[in-house]
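User: I'm writing a tutorial on reading structure tokens. Could you give me a worked example: one chain, its sequence, then its tokens, then a sentence or two explaining what the tokens reveal?
Assistant: Sure. Here is the example chain.
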Amino acid sequence: MKSLIKYIFAISFGILCFSTTCAYSQENAPSFQSLIASGDKEYANKEYIKAKTYYQEALRLKPNDASAKNKLDNTLQKIREENKKEEQFFEHIDNGDNFYSNNDLDKAIAEYNKALEIFPKDEYALGKKQEITTILKDEKDKLASFNEMVALGDNLLKQEKYAEAVMQYESALKLYPNNSATKSKYQDAKNKKEVYDLKVSEFERLCSQGQEFTLRKKYAEAIDAYEQALQIFPDTKEISDKVTELQTMKQVADNYNAKITEADALYEDRSYDEAKAAYQDALSVIPNDSYALGMIARVDEIVNSPEYLKIQSDKAKIDSDFANFISKGENAESTKNYELALSYYAKALELKPNNADALAKKENAENMILYTEQQRKEQERLAAAEAEKQRKEQIQSLISTGNQQLTSKQYAEAEQTFNQVLVLDPNNAVATEKLGLIAGFYEEIQRQKQENYSRAMSEGQYAMDSRNFAEAIRQYNIALTNKPGDEAATQQLTLAQQNENMRVAGLQNEYNGYITKADAQLQTKNYDKAIELYTKAMSVGIDNPYPANKIREIGEILAANKLVELVNSSITINSSETKRFDFEPVDVTTRRGNYILLKAKNLGDKPFIMYISYGSKSGRNGGFTVNVPKNQDVNDFIVRIGSQYKWFSEDNNWIEILPENGNIEIISMEITKGN
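And here are its predicted structure tokens:
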């Protein structure tokens, strides 16, 4: 609007100027004084543009007239001021038009009033003001209807009557289509209606699905469908009643199906008498059921047939073979031969594929195979990690030793030490650098090598004479390191190795003897003798975890068969101090196989003897002596107390501990029995 008015104003101004010019050309040229007078008249009437024209014409006649210049300057100033007022006027008009177009009538009429303050008689501003006044009057009634519809819609929305609420908001928006609040409420009601409609649709679908499952006697699925429907509309009593009814029907059906499943399994296993009884049991749940009746008839037919005796015979053989395979599998499993056990269980399952016991044993054997393999791999990983750790520690130790040898000018020893580093770590920069340094002291090294060679040969011979063949091998290797290929050292090394091999073979034979005897004692459940022999096997010096594992295995067997717990929290017994532990007498039927299982720690730095006595009200009946080692570990002590006649023949009810020449901490103590 503003640009349009300005455009009209510019055209009018141009026409005015053109008209004035034409008038001058048509009339006789006025005088300077008359032009000034005309300009003053127009200026006084605030016709500044006309006044400007007269003053400019006067200055053409007298270009240097100061008065005319001053009048023209004042007129131009007034024109600029008028233009500024027009700018403000048109700005208010534009603002009013914008507010009007956006239906913000109060702000629009305020802008038109500001425009009229500048040009009070402007017809456009007066007309717009009148239009708004009329609209505001009509709007009042319209607004009342609008508010009434919105309020009704709000109330319906609270009542969850979404369809009716949508209709009210739609009617309100027909009056005020751009009302954002009502648009939001309308959309909210619409969304809620859509959600509600979807819930109704899903509810009806689930109910239909529940009915279909019910007809097909799939009661669990029907209950699930109806319960999902109840999650949508929880207060639907009809559906709640259906769920209750179906749960009863499902319970009956589950009971029946369980009995039929059991009967079918017996039938498949050819246990016909038991199968018939199971089918009859199913009929007690659903009388006259055609399937159960049919299977009973089939069982009767089989039992009364000539082939039945053969079937019974075959079944007996299958049962016998099955039991044999299971027994072999269990025996193999007891010796931890899980692969063999698995093969026997697989053969048993070939006879009875669905036998739960065989399946469970097969699964357990498979799990044990997997566990054993995992343990083996973990042990290998830990061993590799430990080896790498020891390798790095050995490298650091050798480097430290080599540096000390260099400081002591033991160049031959240092060269040997750093070469050992390179054997462990071929790219070790420190060893390479040090060996380069040592090369500069070759003569000294050679002298040292000869000295080391002579000393190693001498100490090797001494070790040979002392029958310390392992030390002799080490010394002859040192000699060969200092003088590679030396014939005397090589011969002596061969002799030492032969003697060491013979010694180790002897130890191995001694170890094997202890192990054989210990295994035999373990087989007959003489646990104390077995432990004694396994301990002797460990003391031979053969690096094998087998005896330690067996001792741990015996401890676990005894711990699992605990009869009486005498100590369950640590106590300390000082040297020469007696500590008695009372208990109820052990059942006489178990006494011959009784053991005392004791965990204890030497609190001193030397070995000593500990006395274990037992007795009853009548006095002391017997006892044992136990050697307590000097280590600071928690040691397991196992005493076969049931081997003494007085233990199983008397109702012993106390045990005493007496350490001699040493203090001991008892961690736990219990009376147990063998398997």
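What the tokens reveal: The chain is about 70% helix and 10% strand. Strands lie at 562-567, 571-573, 579-582, 594-602, 608-616, 619-628, 634-639, 654-660, 664-673.
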